[in-house]
Design a protein that fits this description.
six-stranded mixed β-sheet, 15 strands, 347 residues, alpha/beta, 18% strand
């Protein structure tokens, strides 16, 4: 009977048009409003949410199932601790592994491997199991049939990329939607942790992360807080990232200053070669998805306006890995970004 139901599901869902399930390449991020951060008696606005929004989550203690999880697609009952999980959205593979949960099916991003290098490096203990991941397609166009064949007991995706196929995914297995986009990474990590029955573990990670970030800021404050700039090149684009971005939120946690040119209230902003000075700061952290001779990275970084920036003349331009810094908004990626900031600013 189970196989018959599976075949019926596949036939139904493959008749539908699969819509974009999107990499959360963060340019369209919209920060949530649950973003108050408390330190002592002071309350300040963080660039993004710090906890699960009111009315969402399950309220259940870790390890307790069944649980009903409110999320960005509605409300979903998870009858038992999931053991066969499909992750679709950017950062969710990172988040699950950080919590010690190894998914069964995984989607990949445009131009990216099914398992990014930073994931392989960070989780060598899961190498054998990661080699057996079921490829469920590109995040922008997932393979519904491949997901159904896995027979998952939980599907994790995000609203930003999968809202339009949520009902389809839900016919296969209980499905939980996080919000998506980098500035929402803490909230999304906690919500994913709730779906897995590991909310307290996720919160403990975030508490430690926030403490470590604050320690970095304190360690460099005596010499005057340095400004940090975040730049990403793709084949034909150059962007600087604002405060409400993944890296921008991490810098905010550390109390690091941003150049005036990057204090806009959106995730990123394109800049031309004539506007290269917008990328300058005391320290510039730059990644490139394409470093070919005719790429934007090659053109911009050989431009005299780039080589003449103060960060360039002081050897304060730091090349970083595109996957954790700008593509995968997960907790282990956040740790890599924080460590990169530490290594540069603390010498």
């Amino acid at each position: 009977m189970k196989r018959l139901l599976l075949a019926t599901t596949i036939a139904a869902v493959t008749a539908l048009t699969t819509v974009a399930c999107g990499d959360t390449d963060e340019q369209t991020a919209t920060p949530s409003t649950s973003n108050e951060s408390t330190t002592g008696d002071a309350v300040t606005d963080a660039p993004g949410p710090t906890g699960i929004p009111d009315g969402m989550g399950s309220g259940a203690a870790d390890g307790v199932f069944p649980r009903t999880v409110g999320h960005f697609g509605g409300s979903t009952e998870i009858p038992a601790e999931p053991t066969k999980i499909v992750v679709i959205a950017t950062g969710q593979l990172d988040a699950a592994l950080t919590l010690g949960v190894v998914p069964t099916g995984v989607a990949y991003g445009d131009g990216a491997a099914l398992v990014p290098d930073y994931i392989s490096f960070s989780f060598p203990q899961y190498a054998d199991r990661m080699s057996q991941f079921v490829d469920v397609g590109n995040r922008q166009e997932v393979d519904i049939e491949a997901i159904a064949v896995v027979e998952p007991d939980l599907i994790l995706a995000n609203k930003a990329g999968s809202e339009d196929i949520y009902s389809t995914l839900s016919t296969i297995a209980p499905t939980v939607l996080t919000e998506g986009t980098g500035v929402n990474w803490k909230q999304d990590f906690l919500l994913l942790g709730d779906a897995l029955g590991r909310t307290e573990q996720a919160q403990s990670f975030l508490d430690t992360f926030t403490s470590d970030a604050a320690a970095l800021g304190n360690s460099v404050a005596d010499g005057g807080t340095p400004t940090v700039s975040f730049v990403r090149f793709t084949a034909d684009r150059a962007r600087v990232f604002g405060v409400p971005s993944f890296a921008g939120y991490i810098a905010w946690d550390a109390g690091l200053a941003r150049p005036e040119s990057q204090q806009f209230d959106k995730t990123s902003q394109d800049f031309s070669e004539e506007e290269i000075q917008l990328a300058n700061a005391d320290w510039v952290f730059v990644s490139s998805q394409d470093a070919e001779a005719d790429s934007s990275a090659a053109s911009y970084t050989t431009n005299p306006l780039w080589t003449g920036m103060s960060a360039a003349t002081e050897n304060h331009i730091v090349r970083v890995d595109d996957d954790p810094w700008y593509l995968n908004a997960g907790p282990t990626a956040a740790t890599i970004v924080l460590d990169g900031l530490k290594n540069a600013l603390q010498g």
